Amino acid sequence: MTNILQDHIKKTISVDTEKLQLLADFFEQKVFAKKETLLSEGKTCREIFFVAKGCLQIYFVKPNGLEQTIDFAIENWWTSDFMAFLKHTPATFSIKAVEKTNVFILFNSSQQKLLTEIPEMETYFRLIFQRAYAASQKRVRLLYEFSREDLYLQFSKNYPDFIQRVPQYLLASFLGFTPEYLSEIRKKNIS
Amino acid sequence: MTNILQDHIKKTISVDTEKLQLLADFFEQKVFAKKETLLSEGKTCREIFFVAKGCLQIYFVKPNGLEQTIDFAIENWWTSDFMAFLKHTPATFSIKAVEKTNVFILFNSSQQKLLTEIPEMETYFRLIFQRAYAASQKRVRLLYEFSREDLYLQFSKNYPDFIQRVPQYLLASFLGFTPEYLSEIRKKNIS
């Protein structure tokens, strides 16, 4: 499994293969079962997660007790509560596994050592965060530009496999629909 | 003026002062007048901007011809169309000066040379993008959590100086209000 992260790093930056052998010392590998929690709102956030296989849901719990999904992370994405990770403060949202998910975990106690021993990883993380921020900027524009129904149609066109993979109630929560309304839109656009 | 960027870098990372003297070779300094355009939708985006003094508006033009503000950048913030900058594609939104604004510009033609000659700048930009992404994740949560009226009240509480500084029609556009509706909310909450 280490190879999945190594491959992602090799695709992103140029680095000697022998240096990549050192990576195992810095990352913890873990498998989470479907619906298992990786990070809980209110707990100090000390780690960031790389999805090697599977899918994670990032959400918070609304005053009415319902989960509001704000993001997903699938293969080759990093996720965490990055503000809480940076500031060593309690997480403001939770992360759990949508399906059985294999992750690599980087704890903040290992991060500085990793960056000192393999300085190329500064470039890797610079590019990871640069891309993530660019994608997020694009997302904010889409939120302003499209109605929620149009967002769903855009999403279906751009990520057809993802739409099939994620339970519909989670997709509805992400899009801010009720599951019933999502079901209506789907019927309308299939017929 | 170089000192403003140097100070920001020194606050963010540890780097020899003599290395910082080299910075002037990589950045272009420019002053934009109020309402002057820095980046136009549709034009190839080759640069990123650091605001030394002033305020920038990031927006796109809706089919009805109105500007939709999606973000602002004030002192010590970097901005650009980061996806277009990364992929060397046409910008999907525009940037213009809200007031007279002094910026440092880093062109992609200089970026690689800067990172090679001053490798500490990899750490600087890693931290810049990590913070920007963290802030954006927090913003997405707020967009799901609060009504637009509550967002305005939160915003007023957290950034009182900013609320005074930015023209109300731009603030209304950012919050997705009409200027008239914003004016009503303000009156309601002052009285």
Topology:
2 copies of one chain form a homodimer.
Chain A: H1 2-12, H2 17-20, E1 27-32, E2 37-39, E3 47-53, E4 55-61, E5 67-74, E6 78-79, H3 82-87, E7 94-97, E8 101-107, H4 108-117, H5 120-145, H6 148-158, H7 160-165, H8 168-175, H9 179-190
Antiparallel strand pairs in A: 1-8, 2-7, 3-6, 3-8, 4-5, 4-7
Helix pairs in contact in A: 8-9
Quick structural summary:
Two copies of one chain form a homodimer. Chain A has 191 residues and is of the alpha+beta class.
What this model shows, in words?
The structure is a homodimer. By secondary structure, the first copy, chain A, is an alpha+beta fold. Helices cover about 50% and strands about 25% of the residues of chain A. The first copy, chain A, has nine helices and eight strands. Chain A has helices at about 1-10, 15-20, 80-85, 110-115, 120-145, 150-160, 160-165, 170-175, 180-190; strands spanning about 25-30, 35-40, 45-55, 55-60, 65-75, 80, 95, 100-105. Chain A has a four-stranded antiparallel sheet with strand order 1-8-3-6. Chain A has a four-stranded antiparallel sheet with strand order 2-7-4-5. In chain A, a hairpin with a 5-residue loop joins strand 4 (about 55-60) and strand 5. The N and C termini of chain A lie far apart (about 45 Å). In chain A, about 30% of the residues are buried. The mean pLDDT of chain A is about 90. The interface between A and B is medium-sized, with 35 and 35 residues.
